[in-house]
């Protein structure tokens, strides 16, 4: 791919930063970047871009991001800009080449402004993150597009704020990548532990159970031949058999719990459905699953899928093992803010405060409950545990919507 040189000649005018700021014309941008209002980085970028478009009287605008490979894909667009590809990218690349200065670009038959928009003028600026050019923004419109000192101040302010939002986006992506590596490494470790348990303790317990069965058969034969056996021997053998058999069953259940799941290229309902089916097969309990939302594959990160899956596994296992639940219900609800997973059961329930309170010699009274909460909070989410003795339990976790790098149309 060839990169176009910076625009030169009469089609480009550079406007240096100015100190005179018009409070009235910048009010919309200041409101758009109000830190008191909680927004994702992409939503904040779209708000600032739309505010700038209104300030300078533009009709279309876009923010492009340098992907590090010589490309300049668009991540936010409005006024039809999001439907442009090559021409808009070319304009952004030329704007970014102007270092830290603002460029006013004239249109025309041979101008760099996307012909599909039919605009006559554009104003743009590179977006800087820690001194490096991380992308570019531009606003285009008719010949009345404002390009004076106030407009230049507005563009500078918008570029600075979009740069800050873009830096936050990069930090979030780095964190997401690190978290994905940690959780994927954990999943591989869990798989290895499961194999070790299968090849070690599980095999030994199987052999021990077989030995007990053979011994019982020998005792039965001795009894038929009239041998006098201690009266407490048979009940003791039965208890040993039940103990070893129960331990073997729990080991196999644990292996199934540790078995790695397939998280990539699958929707959240499919992944959670696997956990539900496996639990029903092992426990004999019934689980009703309800899923409300689209749950697109690319709308939920790998780390979120792993977290939802492991929390559901733990919640169902606890309901069966500690609460003797025979019926459970799983609700996954997608909203604009994120995804909520709620698990309820008809088990015996417990005192939450008492269960979560550290005990002497046991910093974590309930490792599983703390683990669910830690997993959710690690991804910026929440975990609520509601229960009372004799009333079952409800586990609710919420994870905020994943901010996937990509286009957002501000039309």
What attributes does this structure have?
2 domains, single chain, Heat Shock Protein 90, 411 residues, disordered C terminus, Beta-Lactamase, five-stranded mixed β-sheet, seven-stranded mixed β-sheet, 12 strands, alpha+beta
Write the SSE topology.
Elements: E1 12-15, H1 23-32, H2 41-56, E2 60-65, E3 74-78, H3 86-96, E4 102-106, E5 121-129, E6 132-141, H4 149-224, H5 233-258, H6 268-283, E7 286-292, H7 302-321, E8 327-334, E9 338-345, H8 352-356, H9 367-378, E10 382-387, E11 393-400, E12 408-409
Parallel strand pairs: 3-12, 7-8
Antiparallel strand pairs: 1-4, 2-3, 2-6, 4-5, 5-6, 8-9, 9-11, 10-11
What is shown here, in short?
This protein has 411 residues and is of the alpha+beta class. It is built from nine helices and twelve strands.
Structure description:
The protein is α+β, with helices and mostly antiparallel strands and 411 residues long. The strands form two sheets. Strands 1-4-5-6-2-3-12 form a seven-stranded mixed β-sheet, with helices on both faces. It has a five-stranded mixed β-sheet with strand order 7-8-9-11-10, covered by helices on one side. 32% of the residues are buried. The chain has helices spanning 23-32, 41-56, 86-96, 149-224, 233-258, 268-283, 302-321, 352-356, 367-378; strands at 12-15, 60-65, 74-78, 102-106, 121-129, 132-141, 286-292, 327-334, 338-345, 382-387, 393-400, 408-409. Helix 1 runs antiparallel to helix 2. The chain contains nine helices and twelve strands. The protein has two domains: 9-174, GAF domain (Beta-Lactamase); 263-405, Heat Shock Protein 90 (2-Layer Sandwich).
């Amino acid at each position: 791919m060839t990169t176009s040189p910076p625009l030169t000649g009469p089609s480009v005018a550079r406007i240096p930063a100015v100190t005179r700021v018009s409070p009235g014309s910048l009010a919309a941008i200041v409101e758009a970047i109000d830190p008191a209002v909680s927004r994702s980085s992409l939503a904040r970028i779209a708000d600032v871009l739309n505010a700038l478009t209104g300030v300078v009287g533009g009709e279309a605008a876009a923010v492009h991001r340098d992907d590090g490979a010589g490309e300049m894909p668009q991540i936010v667009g409005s006024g039809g800009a999001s439907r442009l590809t090559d021409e808009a990218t070319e304009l952004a690349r030329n704007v970014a080449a102007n270092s830290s200065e603002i460029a006013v670009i004239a249109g025309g038959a041979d101008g760099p402004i996307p012909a599909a928009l039919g605009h006559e003028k554009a104003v743009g600026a590179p977006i800087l993150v820690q001194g490096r050019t991380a992308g570019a923004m531009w606003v285009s419109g008719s010949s009345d597009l404002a390009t004076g000192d106030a407009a230049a101040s507005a563009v500078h302010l918008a570029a600075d704020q979009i740069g800050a939002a873009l830096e936050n986006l990069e930090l979030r992506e780095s964190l997401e990548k690190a978290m994905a590596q940690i959780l994927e490494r954990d999943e591989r470790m869990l798989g290895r532990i499961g194999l070790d348990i299968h090849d070690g303790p599980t095999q030994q317990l199987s052999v021990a159970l077989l030995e007990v069965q053979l011994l019982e058969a020998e005792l039965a034969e001795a009894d038929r031949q009239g041998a006098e056996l201690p009266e407490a021997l048979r009940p003791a053998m039965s208890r040993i058999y039940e103990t070893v058999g129960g331990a073997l069953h729990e080991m196999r259940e644990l292996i199934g719990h540790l078995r790695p799941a397939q998280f990539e290229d699958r929707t959240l309902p499919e992944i959670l459905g696997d956990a539900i089916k496996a639990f029903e097969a092992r426990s004999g309990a019934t689980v009703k699953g309800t899923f409300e939302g689209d749950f697109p594959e690319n709308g939920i990160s790998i780390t979120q899928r792993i977290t939802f899956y492991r929390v559901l596994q733990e919640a169902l296992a606890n309901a069966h093992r500690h609460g003797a639940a025979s019926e459970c219900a799983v609700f996954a609800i997608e909203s604009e803010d994120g995804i909520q997973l709620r698990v309820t059961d008809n088990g015996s329930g417990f005192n939450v405060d008492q269960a979560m309170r550290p005990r002497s010699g046991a910093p974590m009274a309930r490792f599983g409950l703390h683990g669910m909460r830690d997993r959710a909070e690690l991804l910026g989410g929440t975990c609520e545990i509601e229960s009372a003795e004799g009333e079952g339990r409800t586990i609710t976790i919420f994870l905020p919507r994943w901010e996937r790098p990509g286009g957002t149309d501000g039309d």
